[in-house]
Design a protein that fits this description.
Radius of gyration: 24 Å
CATH class of the largest domain: Mainly Alpha
Number of helices: 16
Order of helices and strands: HHHHEEHHHHHHHEHHEHHH
CATH superfamily of the largest domain: Cytochrome c-like domain
Largest sheet: 2 strands, antiparallel
Structural class: mainly alpha
Shape: globular
């Protein structure tokens, strides 16, 4: 009896030892829909690996401006400057001083978009939980606010865009080649003459546009001098502590803000348990019948084309500024060409769960709503003539189950839950961020 029990123990021990070496991945068998998705991605891109976002520290694989190579020192400086409320040194009202930053309208908690329909820099107070609690300060007149005339786009995956903003006005090369006549002197667009790509140009222009200051006086009296020295060691001292260098550092940081830990990214890298079967069905719809890939492509699932989809502009009780004609005309408002009227740049699609407004005018309140809009292809903005609509804006004929699966893929599979890794733990100034007004500080538990 003792020998029998001993043998049983040995057999069980061997079984559990062998079992511990078998992983879910070893047992995994591709489902037909998964195999079809892999085949489809190979048809479209040569391999599914073409859609993989690089690691955020793998600078050699991240698209960069040839005139602004990414370095760790630049990224570190840019990360601080992007969130630094101490740059708010040129406010309209004194009470707004040092209370806002780039991150006021592009913060991690809202997928690096704004948590409200119309982003507010200076003149906003409060934060809430994901930025949804930011409102206009009663001390400000509407004309004194720094408010966006269009929904704030995300900085996620912007390394895969060569021009910036919904109308693509920032950027001197690539997509904007031939638009030099629109680079009007005395306007922010004049910064295109510096010759940089969109991210760099927008960051350089944005510091001034959004009433921030980064100059030799600021750097000399702050903890930032060593950070600038490390980031730009070969730049002459007289050119080192400037708005241009600050913008280049911010852009270098922005290029590393990638949603590379989303489930779809894990699946692309070989973790076939990362997406449920219905999500895979949704991905198949995205890259096939739903035709989403025809505009949203590449690792960032964005595009450098401009399309008129007839969506509404900013409107409603929470919109506090008048949307001018140039903004309504989208790309046409920048280029001056009628054939570009009402066209807006294709946005990236990662981390949409963190916001409640979609479309350039924030006229949709859920991912499903915008999927249904594109499925029906009936434009909502009567100010956009039918003959201006994109030829790609046509009914998709998706049924209810397909709409659900496609929505699930976008909401869940394209959601990176760890974007807080791109926020600094604290700022060199010690100030609160992304906002430092008293209500925001209270909301965020910052002092």
């Amino acid at each position: 009896m003792k020998h029998t029990c001993f043998l049983k123990v040995i057999v069980l021990g061997v079984f559990f030892t062998l079992s511990s070496c078998v992983t879910d991945q070893d047992d995994y068998v591709n489902t037909p829909v998964e195999s079809n998705l892999e085949k489809r991605l190979a048809e479209l891109y040569g391999s599914k690996s073409a859609l993989i976002l690089p690691a955020s520290n793998d600078f050699s694989k991240i698209p960069s401006d040839a005139n602004n190579p990414i370095t760790q020192a630049k990224v570190e400086l840019g990360k601080f400057l992007f969130h630094e409320t101490a740059l708010g040194e040129n406010p309209k009202l004194e009470q707004g001083r040092d209370t806002y930053s780039c991150a006021s309208c592009h913060h991690a908690d809202a997928g690096f978009q704004s948590g409200i329909i119309q982003g507010i820099g200076e003149g906003g107070i409060g934060f809430g939980i994901k930025g949804e609690g930011r409102i206009k300060s009663t001390e400000y007149r509407e004309e004194d606010l720094d408010m966006q005339p269009i929904r704030s786009p995300s900085i996620l995956n912007t390394a895969y865009q060569d021009v910036m903003l919904w109308n693509g006005q920032f950027g001197a090369v690539g997509t904007n080649a031939g638009t030099e006549a629109s680079w009007k002197a005395g306007t922010p667009i004049e910064n295109n003459t510096l010759g940089f790509e969109g991210l760099e140009t927008q960051a350089i222009a944005g510091i001034e546009v959004h009433r921030m200051v980064c100059d030799p006086d600021f750097v000399a009296s702050s903890p930032y001098k060593d950070l600038f020295d490390n980031a730009f060691p070969n730049t002459p001292i007289e050119d080192r502590y400037t708005r241009i260098k600050a913008g280049l550092a911010i852009a270098a940081y922005e290029r590393t803000v990638l949603s590379n830990q989303a489930p779809f990214q894990d699946w692309l890298k070989g973790d076939y348990t990362a997406m449920a079967e219905e999500e895979i069905e949704g991905a198949m719809l995205f890259f096939d019948k739903g035709q989403c890939y025809s505009c949203h492509s590449g690792p960032g699932l964005n595009g450098m084309e401009f399309h008129a989809l007839g969506m509404n502009d900013l409107a409603g009780p929470n919109v506090l500024t008048v949307v001018n004609d140039a903004t309504k005309r989208g790309r046409g408002g920048f280029t001056g060409k009628s054939e570009d009227d009402y066209k807006f740049k294709t946005p990236q699609l990662y981390n949409l769960n963190d916001v409640n407004f979609f479309g350039h005018g924030g006229s949709f309140t859920s991912v499903e709503a915008i999927v249904r809009y594109k499925n029906k292809a009936r434009h909502e903005n009567n100010g956009v003539p039918s003959d201006k609509l994109s030829p790609k804006f046509e009914p998709l004929n998706l049924d209810e189950a397909e709409i659900h699966a496609l929505t699930l893929f976008i909401e869940k599979s394209l959601y990176d839950p760890y974007l807080s890794r791109y926020k600094p733990e604290r700022l060199p100034s010690g100030f609160c961020f992304p906002n430092a007004d008293s209500q925001s500080s209270l909301d965020m538990g910052c002092n």
